[in-house]
Design goal:
The chain is mainly β. It contains no helices and ten strands. It is globular, with a radius of gyration of 13 Å.
């Protein structure tokens, strides 16, 4: 598996928006995660290669959205109405398993991880 590469992190004021990008030539499933000091890595959103399954975590539902470019080599995480609690390192990761309806993937199913991109939300 080719290691995915994240970009788009930065500093934003509360209430603002950021769009993160994850570039990888192909995948069966791709997920976005985040981790802040003292917390476990948290699932945010995922999609399969077909793009027909796109689960989003309840904690960010309505604020975060996953999508991809027309070339299918970049997957985005659009983050709106950001809050200071969203401050974390954001990672994308790919899995060789194909995400299907009703069969969510676990953290360990994602085997190729990017280096992460820092998102800081100021109050």
């Amino acid at each position: 598996q080719v290691q995915p590469v994240e970009s788009g992190g930065g500093v934003v004021q509360a209430g603002g928006s950021l769009r993160l990008s994850c570039t990888v030539p192909d995948f069966n499933s791709l997920g976005w995660f985040r981790q802040s000091p003292g917390r476990e890595r948290e699932f945010l959103a995922a999609m399969n290669w077909r793009g027909d399954i796109r689960p989003v975590a309840d904690s960010v539902q309505g604020r975060f959205k996953i999508s991809r470019s027309t070339t299918k080599t970049t997957v985005y995480l659009q983050m709106n109405d950001l809050k200071p609690d969203d401050t974390a390192i954001y990672y994308c990761a790919t899995s060789t398993q194909f995400l299907q309806r009703g069969q969510p993937l676990g953290l360990r199913d994602y085997t190729s991880w990017g280096q992460g991109t820092q998102v800081t939300v100021s109050s």
